[in-house]
C-alpha cells in the first residue's frame, strides 16, 4: 500500500519541454519578450544608468538659473539707470551754477557807453 517515490523529472528537452507543461505558456513567453525589449530600450536610451529614474531632474535647475540671470541683468540695468540719472542731475546743476558766456548778465538791450 505504499506508493513508490516519484522520480524527479529530467529536463532532457530543454526549456521548451518545461514550457509545454506550463499553462498559458504563450502568455509567459510574450511577457518575457516584452520585458527583454523594455530592458534593451532602457539600456539604449539611458546608458549605464539603467533607468530613467536615476537621472536628476534638470529642468528646475535650468529655470532657476534663468531666473537668477534675469535678476542679475535687471539689477545691473537699474544700477546703470541710477548712475546716468545722477550724472544728468550733476550736469544740470553745473549748468545752473555757471551762467552762459553768450547770454547777457542783465536782460534787456545792450547799451554802449561812450
Largest sheet: none
User: Could you say which overall geometry the principal axes of the C-alpha atoms support?
Assistant: rod-shaped
- The averaged pLDDT comes out at 77
Number of H- or I-type helical stretches: 3
> How many β strands by DSSP?
0
Into which percentage range does the β-strand content fall?
under 5%
Low-pLDDT residue intervals, each spanning 5 or more residues: none
Taking all Cα atoms into account, the compactness measure Rg is 45 Å
Termini separation: 161 Å
Structural class: mainly alpha
- Helix/strand order, N-terminal first: HHH
The residue fraction in helices comes out at 55-70%
What does this structure look like?
The protein has helices at residues 15-20, 25-46, 59-97. The protein has 114 residues and is mainly α. Among the domains are: 22-55, no CATH class; 56-95. The termini are far apart.
Helices and strands, with pairings:
Elements lengths: L14 H6 L4 H22 L12 H39 L17
Task: Considering the chains and any ligands shown, give keywords for the structure.
single chain; 114 residues; mainly alpha; 0% strand
In short:
59% of the residues lie in helices and 0% in strands.
